[in-house]
Amino acid sequence: MPELPEVQTVLREVVKELQDARIEGLECLYPGTVIVDPELRGIAWPATLTGYERRGKYMLLHLSRGNSLIIHLRMTGKLVSTRIKDEASCHERACILLEGGHKLRFVDIRTFGKITLCRTENIPRFMPNLGVEPLGGDFTPAYLKQLFRQRKTPIKNALMDQTLIAGLGNIYANEILYRSRIDPQTPAGSLSLHKLKRLEEQTRAVLSEAIAMNGTSISDFRRVDDKSGEFQNFLQVYQKEKCPRGHSVQKIKQGGRSTFFCPVCQK
DNA sequence: CAATGATCCTGTCCGC
DNA sequence: TGCGGACAGGATCATT
Q1: CA-based, 20 to 30 A from A166: which of A4, A43, A75, A96?
Q2: Over the stretch A64-86, which tens digit does the pLDDT of each residue have?
Q3: CA-CA distance, A127 to A101, in Å (whole number)?
Q4: Which nt sits closest to A154, CA to C1'?
Q5: CATH code of the domain made up of A141-261
Q6: Among this protein's residues, is A57 annotated catalytic?
């Protein structure tokens, strides 16, 4: 499932794919996958990439002519370059057309992913309110203390709430809590500054390591070049029977999602 | 405002 | 063999 490290990985590779190519169009191949800003008038193409950024799990690609693409992979979205693999897929939902007949295919089994083409100044209209960037300077124990104040929701749910912290999903929330030795059921607002310090440090550590390893390929995440990430080899609790210290990992449901944790290591 | 639950969607896996 | 059902899960919307 693409979370922050996977999105970062894909963005880096998409940029490499787009930076020297003229973008000639955007094709929608499944109803609703491509959203076009009604204020975008006239001709958007051809365009070139003028900048890019990641915000939470969203990729923003800024184009010439004052337009931008907002890409969200949701659960099963993939961007596949025809330079690497030119093979049709029945799950192709959209397509970015490049000069020379090359394409960047948006392949998405479950059809939840979206590509929005909008005026750059209208980006906020097409994006939800997102919380703090977990690798940014604002992400500090004191900030978390304030953010979680009065919150009774379990810390696991809070970590995955994109309006609080942007970019964490189920896999990394589980891993971060294990490495922080925090019980995922702990009410967020009751965590001591001491534990929040561990949480902050481990969040940065886990995400940085995962980015360095090109993300986690569980089930169907693939990079633009169709290679897998490598971080799945370093997961400590997610879908594991035993934690690294040999204790049984417990699986529970929180907010409809699977939580994996070690009741011995995490208090 | 906070928290919860249903919804969207399809491939995979399990039990009968 | 095949069918039904559960599961996976990010974001959004409705409800409490």
Answers
A1: A96
A2: 999 999 999 998 899 999 887 77
A3: 31
A4: B3
A5: 1.10.8.50
A6: yes
Identify whether A128 is preceded by a cis peptide bond (ω within 30 of 0). no
CB atoms under 10 Å from CB of A6, counted, come to 28
Q: How far apart are CA A16 and CA A11, in angstroms?
A: 9
- Do the first three CATH levels of A4-126 and A141-261 match, i.e. the same topology? no
Both structure tokens of A141: 């124990």
For residue A66, report the phi and psi dihedrals to the nearest 5 degrees: 80, 25
Structural domain boundaries of chain A? 4-126, 141-261
Whole-model pTM: value is 0.93
Q: Which CATH fold would you assign to the domain A4-126?
A: N-terminal domain of MutM-like DNA repair proteins (3.20.190)
The 3-state DSSP composition of chain A as helix, strand, coil percent (nearest 5) reads 30, 25, 45
Residue A43 has pLDDT above 90, yes or no: no
Of A6, A13, A57, A200, which residue is the catalytic one?
A57
Residue with minimal CA–C1' distance to B11 is: A109
Close Cβ partners of A136 (under 8 Å, ≥ 6 residues apart): none
- Determine whether A2 is an active site residue: yes
